[in-house]
Amino acid sequence: MIPQGNLKRWSLLPQREHFCTQGLLETLLEARGVAPQSRDSFLHPKYEDLYDPFLFQDMRKACQRIFDAITHKEKITIHGDYDADGVCSSALLSQIIKDLGGEVDVYIPHREKEGYGVAMQTVETIASNKTNLLITVDCGSANKESLEYAQSLGIDVIITDHHHVPKDTPQVFALINPQNPNDHYPFGYLCGTGVAFKVAQALCVIDSTATTPRLSKGYDKWLLDLVAVATIADMMSVLDENRILITYGLKVLQKTKRKGLKKLMELAGLVVNDATPITPYDIGFVIAPRLNAAGRMDHANAAFFLLTNQDDDAI
User: Fold this and answer.
1) Is the pTM here over 0.85, yes or no?
2) pLDDT single digits (tens) 207-248
3) CA dist 104 → 77, 188, 244, 245 (Å)
């Protein structure tokens, strides 16, 4: 028997006189707070409606610093996180930097031994590896002491993150975070991989005048499989820009070029074809838990390797 105190009280919306499919849809959208003027974009997201990545105030200087590092063969280190979002954002940003000709290492901390964020000891390790540019993904906003220490060692730091930005903001080369109160990006609910994708978008635009290897037209869209996985795995809002990223990300995931990701789906029993498209459920309950498991059971490097390695024998 269910205790009386645990019973939920339902509040029903007023019945409409003409109950039809269209009426039901409008009622549901109204109940979920989707304004009439936003319903078409809610139901039919368009890729071209993504926000300009240069609305982040530090985006242009961050991209220019990345290109300078690539051009001058400087060592770049990406510091990620051990969950699905952190692993996907590490894979995404390292991929585009490598494809632009950059020398990049990826450092993902051990969940139990190092914990979340950029540790002071990690900065010393990165410095000893002759890193010139440190880019954080899905972390860094709260690591003022360690990242300012990195700056004092001559390492330029670019934070890309989506977590809360404290009032005492880290004084680094660039901060790209939709939660930054000093910034004016119009959508505040990107996941870490979503923020990394905005950096990639910007790099693709600036690339047209760069001396680095040219990226193919539409290069950025092939990164959306990782964005969809991370956005759903991190349980972010499925409205506004995220709705566009997930919609197109599911299409890319359906035909992903990532051999490890395809193998993971195959071993998990996901049948992927035109008749059975990938769904958000598949990500939330099949793909993402397996990526998260690597960091919980041992080290998230295994998940990163799976997303980035294209060697059939190794996978």
Assistant:
1) yes
2) 766 667 788 889 999 999 999 999 999 999 999 999 999 999
3) 5, 28, 29, 26
How far is residue 280's CA from residue 198's CA, in Å, rounded to a whole number? 22
Asked if residues 140 and 165 have their Cβ atoms less than 8 Å apart, the reply is: no
Element (H or E) spanning 136, and its range? strand 133-137
Q: Are 13 and 31 in contact (CB under 8 A)?
A: yes
Distance CA 125, CA 103 (A): 17
Place of tokens 């009426």: 23
* Cβ atoms of residues 259 and 310 within 8 Å: yes
Q: What is the pLDDT of residues 25-70, one digit of tens each?
A: 888 888 877 877 777 788 889 999 999 999 999 999 999 999 999 9
Cβ contact 122:146 at 8 Å: yes
Q: Locate tokens 């290897």: which residue?
A: 213
